[in-house]
Each structure stands twice: as structure tokens, then as C-alpha cells.
Amino acid sequence: MQQRSVLKENVLYWVGDADFGVYPGFEESGFYRRDTRYLSHYRWLLDGKPLRPLMQHLIRPYHLRQSCSNDDLGYLMKTGVRRDLMLGGLEATDTLHLSPYSAGARQLRLEVAADFSDMFQVRGAPKWERRFETAPVEGGVEFRYAGQDGVLRRAVITAEPAAEWDGQALSWTLEGAARVQVTARLLENDELPVPGDWTALEASYAQWMAAAPRLSDARDQEVLDRATADLRSLLFDTEHGPFPAAGIPWFVAPFGRDSLIIAHMLLPHHQDVVRGTLRLLAAKQGVRYDAVTLEQPGKILHEERVGEYTRTGHTPHRPYYGSVDATPLFVWLVGEYYRQSADLELVRELRPHWEAALGWMLSDADPDGDGFLEYTPHPGGITNQVWKDSSDSVFFEDGRDPDPQKPIAIVEVQGYAYAAYLAAAELYAVLGETELAGAFRARAETLRAAFVSAFYLPGLNYYAHGLDGDKRPMRVKTSNPAHALWTGIFPPEHAAMIAREALSSELWSGWGIRTVAEGAPRFNPVSYHNGSVWPHDTALAALGMRRYGLEAEARTVARALFDAARWSPDRRLHELFAGYAREDGPPVPFPAACHPQGWDAVIPLALAPLLEGTGQRESAD
């Protein structure tokens, strides 16, 4: 599988091969905006031969620098090229400085083509023929596509000095040292071009880097610096404030669960992102019943897409509400935000939304009234509406699936609900509504007692993955109970037991906690959710261990995740990697994973205090 490289700034992202090349042979490569690949081919040639990077440096996630030649190397190299590719505003600027090492003219060409494919179609959904116009413009070329959704999408490529367009490429004949700058603008309808403000961008990155913790180990600091820059790059601007995308390239979009967990872990550092996340999700909160999108009053979205494929009704992501966990995470985050900011104004502003979310939790999310938050698999959408959303990720100890016609309650979702009810109690208390505060505190304790009774498995010294519609526990050892330590739902006397099992040889790979224990039905170390290691899942377990005062265990987990990132050439954690034991070798990344991914980029920031021994315990009593 080809190595993927990415650049991103705001709504723009560039996906290329290891050398940032964009061409049809690398299907996911392209220059994208808002779920649409505008440019599908972009290749420089010098004297008829492709530019070959001799060195490349990602100065910032929006700025690539390369030193290149064509295929003439060593004593035969005739021209050196320094390239700076930068994303900003609504455009990419690609600047080449050519340094000749011999006399004579040089022929420079830029092959460029558009296809305007929707992201779902890039990922394999059925495609349709798109007819678009290609026309020369002054110094360049413009591609125009009038979509079936009524949006006119335009890719405008201009150059300085002006280039000639021959139907396939822009071309220049150059003498001596030369500078060529190409600007590729991705525009919708009658939008005006927006140039990149490089000074403001650099200032923003400098601010983020300065706010990051400092670690005593230089290699750990490299991991943290890379993660901090990635986090900044994953933001996109909205009318509600900055909002973190879930990952590049597949998930540059609002995701409820992902963005809420990212914002939760960013709370001590970037509260503007938390406010933007809460406000955007509040603005898109469910207000009606829709059997296709699973919208319900008070429910927080799972995923929103804005490309042609969605806007013409081919997917339900307009937005799609197929998750049971985003809504309690939303309420919990409002409460945690208030605890760390004392911003009562935002609590009051969002009150209709967190109250509507609580209303959903107490009604539609609990169809049988037993107090547990549940979902029923959606045949037309996501089967399992939790973070382990694969269709095969929920099963019994004998490998059977639960009845898909009946509700399913998953262990960590009950923890989210418990934390949300405690958050609601605190919010009502600061608003002076003591009766409601007491009611939600009591509801949290009732849920905890019912949870222990239904989910605890004394014979396994562990907790069930979930309950089926007949309240039968799924006696499979998974990472989910360890993940749920983060929420504080377990009695303190059970926390050490869960941590001990999570660090046993069945679940602990040495790099992280396996999603399913070795030896369990369906265990496969290279599966998506049935034996792989997801760093964010493992990191939340570490935060939960710290919450219960299990400092040594939490530090063991944090150290393993930083070590895994240090193995990566770019010092990044991957979205997931195989569940092979550490003694077998370095972590093996999952090939199709997002990279960078929001959950994983925030991990070093969240776990850094554990490496330095400054983690603070939050009461779980």
C-alpha cells in the first residue's frame, strides 16, 4: 500500500503519495475542499522528466518545502529546484525556484486535471460521469463543474510568469535562474478568491506551540510538538468558532463523538476550541424525528457531510445522527467546561441544548426504561452506534451476534451517561436549582448501582462488553471497561481490578490495550475493532487509571503510547495499529487509517503530565 502524505489548512487539504504527488494511479490523492476532490492530477516535469525530491521538510502542516531535481543526478544534474507548497485561504500556492548548473533553456511543465469526485466516491461509492468545462484563463486554466446539487465548483489555476495551456499542462520555457509561482484556487459559485495570510497562520501555529507543555525527554518532546501542530491543522473555522476535524483524509468533517472527545482532552489548553465545538453541535442538534438520518429531538449528530453525493440524497449524512454516545458526551463536556472555566454565561447560553440532550437520554435513548442508554442497529446506516462501530464488533463469548432487532447497551456508554448526569447536577446547582441538582445526582447513583449489578462479571473479575435486548451480558474481555474508567462510573474497589485485567497479557500488547482479548472469539490482531490497538481508547484508559489514583498503571500506559509514536518516522501515533505483542517488533500501523487523526493527535497533550509525574487525580467516589 502506498504511503500517504497530507497538507491541511482550514477547509483545504492536499493528499499525495510519499512525495506529495497527486495522480490517478494513487486513487485517494488530490486537492480537496468540503468533501470534494477538485484536482485529481498535479505533476511537475522538468525537461520532460518528473521532479524528484532529494529532500523534503514539512515546515508546518500547511507548508511543504522540497529540494528537487529531475532524473539527472550527480554529475549530470543540470538544474536544482526548491519548491514551497503552501495552503491558505481558499488556495494553494506552489513556488519553484530554479537554479541552473549548465547553460541552455529549460522546459517546465505542470500537468493538471480535475475530476470533482465526491469523497464518498473516492472511497469506493458508485461514481457517475461528470461533465465539466475546461477553459484557458489569463496565465492559466479554469475547470468548472455545475453539480447535480446546484453548486458550481471551480478550480482556477493561474501562474506567474504566465503559462501556456495545451489542454493537458501549463508550460514555460525558462532561461537561467527563474521563479515560477502557481496558484490553485478552489471556489464555489461566485466566491471571490481568498489568499493565504501566511503571517497570521504562522502566528497561530507559534501560539499553539508555545502553549504546549515542555517535556524533559527530547524525543518525547518531538512527539508532543508533532501532535500539537497536527491538532492545530485539524481545526476548521465555523461561524460558531474553531472545530476539530476527526482525521485526514477521510474525516475532514464535523463528527460528534470524535470532536467531543478531542475537545474534552483540550480543555486545559484551548478552551476556544471547546466553545466552538459545543456551539456548533448545539446548532445542529436534532429537533425532529427522521427514520433515515436517525435524527431525534435533543440528539447530537454523529457526522455531517456537505459534498454532492450527500446533498443529492445518496447518503444520510445531512447530518446523520447514528450514535448513542455523542449526546451524553455533549452534556458531560458542558459540565467539565464550566468546572475549568467558571463561564456561567456559556452554560446559560447552551442550557436549552444540554437540557434537550438530557431529555433525549431519558426518553428515546432508553426505550425500555431500565435506565441504560441503548441503540438498535440501523440497517440503512451504522450497525453499532458506538465508537467500535464495525458490524462485527459486538458479540457474545461464543461468537454469536446479539439480536439486531432489539436494543443493545454498551459498557462505556453507561459511563458517559453517569458522567453526564453528574455534570447536569453540577450545572443545575450553580444555576441555583437545587431540586433538579439533587434529582440528577440521585439518577447518577441509581445508574451506577444498576450498572454494577448488570455488567459486573465476578467470574471474570471484569465487566461485560454490553447487554443484549434481553439483558444478557456479553462475557467477552474487551478494552471497553478500561476505557470507561475515564468516566468514574466504577466503584473504587473495582477500578484496580479492571486496570489489572487491562494490563494482563490477554489485553495488553505492550504498545496499548487490545480491543478484544487474545484468545477471545473473533480475536484478530489486524482487524479493525477485534484485536487491534486504538491509541485513543488506550489513552482514555490511562486517564481513567489516573482518576482512580492508579498512577503507576497510568504511567505504564502513557509511556507505551509515547514509545509507539517514537517508532513512527514522523513521530505520530496512528489511528490504530495491530495487536501484536511488543516483543514481536515495532507497532504495525493499520494501512487505511487516518493519519493524522484527531483523537491520536490530542493524546500526547493529554498524557504529557503523566510522563512528568504531574497528573492530578480527579475523585471517582
TrEMBL record:
Q: State the InterPro entries in the record.
A: 6-hairpin_glycosidase_sf (IPR008928), 6hp_glycosidase-like_sf (IPR012341), GDE_N_bis (IPR032856), MGH1-like_GH (IPR054491)
Cross-referenced SUPFAM superfamilies: Six-hairpin glycosidases
Entry-linked Pfam families: GDE_N_bis, MGH1-like_GH
Q: What is this protein called?
A: Glycogen debranching enzyme
Set out the biological process GO terms recorded for this chain's protein: carbohydrate metabolic process
Q: What residues does the Mannosylglycerate hydrolase MGH1-like glycoside hydrolase domain cover?
A: 278-573
Q: Which residues form the Putative glycogen debranching enzyme N-terminal domain?
A: 8-184
Q: What is the lineage of its organism?
A: Bacteria, Thermotogati, Deinococcota, Deinococci, Deinococcales
Source organism of this protein record: Deinobacterium chartae
